Amino acid sequence: MAIPDKWIKLLKEVKDENWNMGDIVWTLTNRRYMEKTVAYVESHDQALVGDKTIAFWLMDKKMYTHMSVLSPPNYVINRGIALHNMITLITHSLGGEAYLNFIGNEFGHPEWLDFPRKGNNNSYHYARRQWHLVDDENLKYKFMNKWNSAINALEEIYGWLHSSPGYVSWKHEDDKIIVFERAGLVFIFNFHPDKSFPDYPVGVNRAGTYKVILNSDDLQFGGENRVDSKVLHFTIPETFANRSCKMFVYIPCRCAIVYKLLDD
């Protein structure tokens, strides 16, 4: 419960420009070495009996008016989808040895779930998930669902959930950057609300050429298409962040990128 409790506490009480990267990493990794743990973003405590889902804490009532792909861009929705995607990936890839979706959090269901009971006059109104939302191509719920599917598909290939725990090489509080390696992949997160970083140094332990294999800023995931996934990144033989070499990457604000070593 520590992980979903952490996310809900941050969303309720802390502006994301004040999120502590070290605290997030500690919550995601604070378990005995190789003790198998199930990680999840939200649970019954958040999404049942009248509280809000993670998506609704992020986007609130704007979800009822600005989730159409035909509507003008909206800052609250753009921020919400970006952070929802980042929270999903970092929890999935760093938080444990299994990952649990919670009845609709994969596509950002807006409302809570509440079974008929005396306290709600035995109402069935909230006793369902609105699965039609994610199937509507005119709504932005599809972006979060595609991101969730892409994460699971990538994990099927590289198997980070049954690999050794991630090695976190970088936690920068001012830049709001987290970097770690797991299952041979390099995960980079920029939680900063408005700072993008060109030529950001990233330490890696294996020399070679790296390419982007997953990017939350892709248009299909509701992003702004600021990352060119065709660009290759070459390491140089200089130690950085306690790793044997480094490379330089462009990491936009509120973006998560996964890199792999070519020919690996």
UniProtKB/TrEMBL annotation:
One of its GO terms (molecular function) is cation binding. It comes from the Eukaryota. InterPro entries: A-amylase/branching_C, GH, Glyco_hydro_b. GO terms for cellular component: cytoplasm. Residues 167-260 form the Alpha-amylase/branching enzyme C-terminal all beta domain. GO terms for biological process: glycogen biosynthetic process. SUPFAM superfamilies: (Trans)glycosidases (SSF51445), Glycosyl hydrolase domain (SSF51011). This is 1,4-alpha-glucan-branching enzyme-like.
